[in-house]
Amino acid sequence: MKMYTKTVCPKCMVAKSFFDNNDILYEAINLDQNESARDELVSKGFMAAPIVEFEGKYYTNMNEFQELVDQLS
């Protein structure tokens, strides 16, 4: 599981805390520091962080994050 974040991003901080509190492991990728990852996501139509990638699917909001955590629990 990968979580794409930005350095200054309140929603990213909330998402990280949410996954941490639910003991879900993820690889955090900072889009401010990883231009190739940023370009790839933009080419797929994503314009805002956080974005979670898991098993080829992308999740972009807290409702989707909750559904993912529920599936993994």
Structure description:
It contains 3 helices and 4 strands; from the N terminus they run βαβαββα. It has a 4-stranded mixed sheet, with helices on one face. The chain has one domain (2-72): Glutaredoxin. The longest helix has 12 residues, at 10-21. The chain is of the alpha+beta class and 73 residues long. It is globular, with a radius of gyration of 11 Å. A hairpin with a 2-residue loop joins β3 and β4 (57-59). Helix content is 44%, strand content 21%. The model has no long low-confidence stretch (mean pLDDT 97). The chain has helices at 10-21, 35-43, 62-72; strands at residues 2-5, 27-30, 51-54, 57-59.
Question: Which key phrases capture this entry?
Answer:
four-stranded mixed β-sheet; 21% strand; 73 residues; single chain; alpha+beta; 3 helices; Glutaredoxin; Glutaredoxin domain-containing protein
Question: In the CATH classification, which architecture applies?
Answer: 3-Layer(aba) Sandwich
SSE order, one letter for each helix or strand = EHEHEEH
The helix content, as a percent range, equals 40-55%
Can you tell me the CATH superfamily? Glutaredoxin
The CATH class designation is Alpha Beta
Ranges where pLDDT stays below 50 over 5 or more residues in a row are none
